[in-house]
Amino acid sequence: MAVLKVYVAPHPVLKKKAEPVKGGVTPALRKLMDDMLDTMYATDGIGLAAPQVGESKRILVLDIDQPRGEDIKLEDRRTKPQCFMNPEIVWSSEDLRVYNEGCLSVPGQYADVVRPDKIRVKYIDYDGKDQEMEADGLLATCLQHEMDHLDGILFIDHLSTLKRDILMRKLKKYTKENVEDMAESHVLL
Ligand code: NI
Q1: What 8-state DSSP symbol labels residue 20?
Q2: pLDDT tens digits, residue range 47-100?
Q3: How many angstroms is it from 52 CA to the middle of ligand 1?
């Protein structure tokens, strides 16, 4: 098990368009997905995209069903881990949903983001199989947030320039104040 370093905005890897996975699932890609899941659970996230751990690849992992909170043991969090390679939205609803989003790469900051309530996504799963699924509610929000990461988009990019500037200033202050906490979460296990 390995917990990877999570990159924080404004790191350039978070602004890059990630490369598609080609030629099937290799042991190295499986290890990356396993490590991304470990990192996600260790940092109390419900989703994580590869660019957030410095890998500019179109891969994301999530587990929205996990019990969360400081009193929950790490080994009890793994509930329904899901891995997506080369995910693509093939349909999205006109109905919208507002969710107060946060991000491991924008620590300590939250803002309401409006996105389609339902989406249909095609992707390659952990075993290398082509899949298609429909998602709604938090799963749809989380998938769209993580897929944005693959295109170099952060949730704060959905806000007005004014709101984004305020959040980025608060983030700068936050990362300065929490630098020790953050260093701790970057330790390799
Ligand atoms: Ni994020």
Answers
A1: P
A2: 999 999 999 999 999 999 888 777 888 888 889 999 999 999 999 999 999 999
A3: 8
